[in-house]
Amino acid sequence: MERKYQILELLKRSKTPVKGKYLAELFDVSRQIIVSDIAQLREEGHRIVSTRDGYIYDAGNKVRRVVAVKHSSQDIYDELKRIVENGGKVLDVIVEHPVYGEITGRIDVSTLDEVEKFVSLLASSGTKPLSEISNGIHLHTIEAPDEETMERILKAIAKYRLSNENTECEK
């Protein structure tokens, strides 16, 4: 079997992101060869997402919502925690900048451990969250395995939600 299809099968079976460095060592090739293989797989229509923790295969059968929320920087941990504890994944944060327009930052957290790492990285880097640009108002793309789980998540974060929620979903 061709290496890129072995990579694809490995990503489909993995429940967690797979680092490019690991793939390069596994197949005894350079990291750049792995990047090329991933690019070819994407060109063939395979949904492979790059995260800071590695590559992950996106089967595309999840429910997604873009939800408007508002809170202070101190509430980031609580908001993300409520989402992942109820079975969701926070894909990104989106804010409106007065000069640049819409700015999106990847978050990619689906476990409490990932939430803690994300919040810790924000604190240790001295970086301000994107939501500070817009006085705490921001959007999150949230992913859940089904509508029931999404409804549970939305109820859990109700105190942060704005009334003009965007509820587009992909299935």
Automatic annotation (TrEMBL):
Domain Helix-turn-helix type: 3-56
UniProt-listed InterPro entries: 3H_dom_sf, 3H_domain, HTH_11, NadR, WH-like_DNA-bd_sf, WH_DNA-bd_sf
Pfam families hit by this protein: 3H, HTH_11
Positions of the 3H domain: 67-159
Metal-binding listed as a keyword: yes
Entry keywords, A to Z: Metal-binding, Nickel
Binding positions for Ni(2+) per the UniProt entry: 71, 79, 138, 140
UniProt keyword Metal-binding present: yes
MF (Gene Ontology): metal ion binding
PANTHER family: TRANSCRIPTION REPRESSOR NIAR-RELATED
Name of this protein: Transcription repressor NadR
Organism placement in taxonomy: Bacteria, Thermotogati, Thermotogota, Thermotogae, Thermotogales
